[in-house]
Amino acid sequence: MKKEKPVLAVLGGIGSGKTTVSNLLLGEKGWLFSADQEAHLLLETPDVVEKLISFFGKDILSGDGLINRKVLGERVFPDKVGLDYLESILHPLIRKKALEFIEKGQNTHDCTHLLLDIPLLLEKNWRNLCTILVFVKCGDEKRLQRVRGRNWNEGELEIRENAQFPLTTKESISDYIIDNSAELDQTRQQAADLLKLILP
Ligand code: ATP
Question: I want to staple 30 with a disulfide (CB 3.0 to 4.6 A). Which of 26, 47, 88, 193 is the partner?
Fold first, then answer.
């Protein structure tokens, strides 16, 4: 019987190093699916544009006829109804793309494993897309220090994190933990060790 290739997803707090670790876990022949990137592409498709205009109005468009993501974001976030609508349009399409991506990776000789970069993977019930959860551990102070360039304060980090499952839950349900609180070299080593463990 053909063995399925591992499908990983990386969890962790804001600024913990999820993107950094995901990139390290790509190794030589891993494939990365980015939900955000897919969402951006979908916002350029005529079908999606039409639906969003019918709900939010024409002023979400910029001069070139494309969706102005900044304006759309301003419309969506203060208003739960708007966010629900946007997600009802985008999420099924992104999920379909993710499934197609996984299927393609599973059937491509040159792909050894897949990585899913999907914000709110647990919160939106997408856990069943992946086979291995990796938690990136990093203390609050260090995370705050690393995202300081974004001009967030401690309160903002907390507000954004309160919209997500508690980190303790994410850690406890994960299959592996990578500690990213120290130098990058140490994280790199842990990622390499993990790949050795899960790849044939
Ligand atoms: P977000 O929650 O915003 O998606 P994230 O969890 O994906 O963030 P990264 O973007 O990977 O986190 O890392 C946050 C910042 O910290 C980046 O600027 C990154 O370069 C830096 N960083 C990550 N790991 C380390 C490390 N071990 N040492 C020093 N800097 C690091």
Answer: 26
